[in-house]
Amino acid sequence: MRIGILGAGAYAMAISSILDNNNHELTMWTEFVDEAEALKSTRKNDKKMPGFTLPEKINITTDLEKSIINKDLIILAIPTQFLDTVCKKMKSYINNNKILITSKGIDQKTGFLVDKIIRTNLNTENIAILSGPTFAIDIPKKSQIGLSIASSNKETESLIKEIFDNEYVNLDYTKDIIGTELCGAVKNIYAIVMGLLEGLECNESTKAFFMTEIIKETKELINLFGGTEETILTYASIGDIFLTCNSKSSRNYSFGTLLGDKQNKLKSKKYLEETTVEGVYTLRSMKKILQAQNKSFKIIDTIYEIIENEQEPTKILKIFK
């Protein structure tokens, strides 16, 4: 199959390792000339993907048209904040291509989930979401991983299954695009919460209690947004939440840990100024959406008060009593 990967970040490179292993013809696009030239000459980007070497047969280009025309599948692996701009540039080249989205999050300006950004700009139903509990650095190791494919288009789902399925990639399938996207976004909020509990030196029993409440609240959010309850049991939901909320290497978790530690209060502010913490941006967008609907969710509301209104971190421990 001929596949265009838009983006040259860690996850784009990780996905390329699966597709190269499955013997597909790949073209990777970046709009940055310096990045493209560096990848062509070294096949590495140790800042984004330490230790990984991009296979030689993957074509690198800054020509958007070449990465889209005559491709069986287009993979969007770029940060959510740039999706709208890139989709507008893609519009004149798209011709019934199947599109797979690996970007996660909520657009800060519009409050749109990623599939709505795509549909609004490209007027297509040939889309699917790929999501699951995977760190980019782990994927090229060919250890067992689980990924969810969410699509309401049978042809797109079948094509992606054919392209991705192998001995170490395990796939589950759902028609619930909204629920799958939502879980991929809010898991970063909840990772801050679990980091906060670490900073507060909570024991494992308390952490397990909160993990359970996080799963319950996610299920309620899925319902509110019009998703399907069963999505909570997919790799994209409970799997990704479990991974992100227990990872000390996560920026969201790390920020939460600093936030919960009284001795590191100033460090948490500095960390937020110097580091992109996706969960904070998602939290702000989600709070606006919930306020517009006059809805209240205990964990989201409380972590918002702690971060944005500088409430005491221990407030999180009192919300269920």
Describe the structure.
The chain has 321 residues and is of the alpha/beta class. The protein has 2 domains: 2-175, NAD(P)-binding Rossmann-like Domain (Rossmann fold, 3-Layer(aba) Sandwich); 178-318, N-(1-d-carboxylethyl)-l-norvaline Dehydrogenase, domain 2 (Orthogonal Bundle), CATH 1.10.1040. Helix content is 48%, strand content 12%. It contains 13 helices and 8 strands. Strands 3-2-1-4-5-6-7-8 form an 8-stranded mixed β-sheet, sandwiched between helices. It is globular. The model has no long low-confidence stretch (mean pLDDT 94).
Strand order of the largest sheet: 3-2-1-4-5-6-7-8
What is the terminal-to-terminal distance?
A: 55 Å
Q: What general outline do the C-alpha atoms trace?
A: globular
Main sheet properties: 8 strands, mixed
How many discrete structural domains?
2
Specify the CATH homologous superfamily of the largest domain.
NAD(P)-binding Rossmann-like Domain
Topology order in helix (H) and strand (E) letters: EHEHEHEHEHEEHEHHHHHHH
The radius of gyration computed from the alpha-carbon positions, rounded to a whole number of angstroms, is: 20 Å
* Percentage of residues assigned to helices: 40-55%
Number of helices: 13
- Which structural class should the secondary elements be placed in? alpha/beta
**What's the CATH C level of the largest domain?**
Alpha Beta
Number of strands: 8
Spans of at least 5 consecutive residues whose pLDDT stays below 50 are none
Task: Report the β-strand fraction as a percent range.
Answer: 5-15%
Mean pLDDT: 94
CATH architecture of the largest domain: 3-Layer(aba) Sandwich
Q: Could you say what the CATH topology of the largest domain is called?
A: Rossmann fold
